[in-house]
């Protein structure tokens, strides 16, 4: 039986690879811009109750906690939680955090009530059933709350293989190459994520491509450029099509209406049937 990926064996290497590189820096900058917008939209609620689902060492949620909000961070990896605890303590944020060793699918057992904001970043691509897990998480967002989802983009993975000439690999369905332990196990199709959100009644607030061109550059034989230029151009292009949809990751964030649209529709339908009776 397949299991969700647990990073106990690679926690330190994974954290360094994600956050200690140019790739990680671009990701942090463009996603944080979206988070700032989300926090503005949630202004008036203080402190926010935030769930960092599969949060690893909590790079983004620590910045939110530093603003005075309360964070529950859950992860399947006890080693990742140990690293998170060290970082949280180093940054003086212990009072803002609660760490939970739990699969995401069981997080409702560990929180008292739905929360204002859920972060679900770079987790879906490591799960056996990513859409079902996302669907379950949506139930833990309170009315008026927001979910922030970042996922490894199937379209970006396909494009990368196309320009690298890996056509046989594409024809085989792009199976995960186990020798690349830090490469996500699968690409997630954006339309499936968007459909999941809208079918649950959420309103999509925005979408951002994360690394729309950086990963496609041949860094050993390109013209003159600096990292600052790359970062600036990524920020300029990341919310524009077609670049957005070619990002190696996509960040989409959506809000749950204050009124439960689904139950309202059902109630109206039942009332209509009663009138006919």
UniProtKB/TrEMBL annotation:
Top enzyme class: transferase
Gene3D superfamilies: Vaccinia Virus protein VP39
CDD domains membership: AdoMet_MTases
Enzyme Commission designation: 2.1.1.-
Catalytic activity annotation: 5-carboxymethoxyuridine(34) in tRNA + S-adenosyl-L-methionine = 5-methoxycarbonylmethoxyuridine(34) in tRNA + S-adenosyl-L-homocysteine
Signal sequence region: none
PANTHER family: TRANS-ACONITATE 2-METHYLTRANSFERASE (PTHR43861:SF1), TRANS-ACONITATE 2-METHYLTRANSFERASE-RELATED (PTHR43861)
Family: Belongs to the class I-like SAM-binding methyltransferase superfamily. CmoM family.
Protein name as annotated: tRNA 5-carboxymethoxyuridine methyltransferase
Organism field: Photobacterium piscicola
Taxonomic classification: Bacteria, Pseudomonadati, Pseudomonadota, Gammaproteobacteria, Vibrionales
């Amino acid at each position: 039986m397949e299991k969700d990926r647990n990073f106990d064996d690679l926690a330190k290497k994974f954290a360094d690879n994600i956050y200690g590189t140019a790739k990680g820096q671009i990701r942090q900058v463009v996603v944080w811009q979206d988070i700032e917008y989300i926090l503005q939209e949630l202004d008036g609620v203080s402190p926010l109750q935030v769930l960092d689902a599969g949060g690893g060492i909590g790079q983004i949620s620590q910045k939110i906690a530093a603003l005075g909000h309360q964070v529950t961070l859950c992860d399947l990896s006890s080693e990742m939680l140990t690293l998170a605890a060290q970082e949280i303590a180093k940054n003086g944020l212990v009072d803002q955090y609660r760490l939970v060793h739990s699969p995401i699918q069981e997080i409702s057992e560990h929180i008292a009530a739905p929360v204002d904001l859920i972060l679900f970043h770079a987790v879906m691509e490591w799960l056996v059933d990513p859409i079902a897990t996302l669907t379950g998480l949506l139930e833990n967002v309170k009315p008026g709350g927001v979910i922030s989802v970042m996922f490894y983009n199937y379209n970006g993975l396909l494009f990368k293989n196309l320009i690298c000439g890996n056509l046989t690999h594409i024809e085989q369905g792009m199976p995960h190459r186990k020798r690349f332990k830090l490469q996500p196990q699968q690409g997630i199709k954006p339309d499936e994520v968007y459909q999941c959100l809208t079918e649950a009644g959420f309103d999509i607030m925005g979408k951002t491509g994360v690394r729309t061109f950086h990963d496609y550059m041949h860094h050993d034989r390109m013209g003159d450029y600096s990292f600052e230029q790359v970062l600036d151009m990524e920020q300029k292009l990341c919310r524009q099509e077609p670049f957005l949809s070619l990002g190696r990751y996509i960040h989409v964030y959506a809000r749950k209406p204050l009124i439960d649209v689904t139950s309202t529709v059902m109630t109206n339908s039942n009332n209509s049937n009663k009138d006919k009776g």
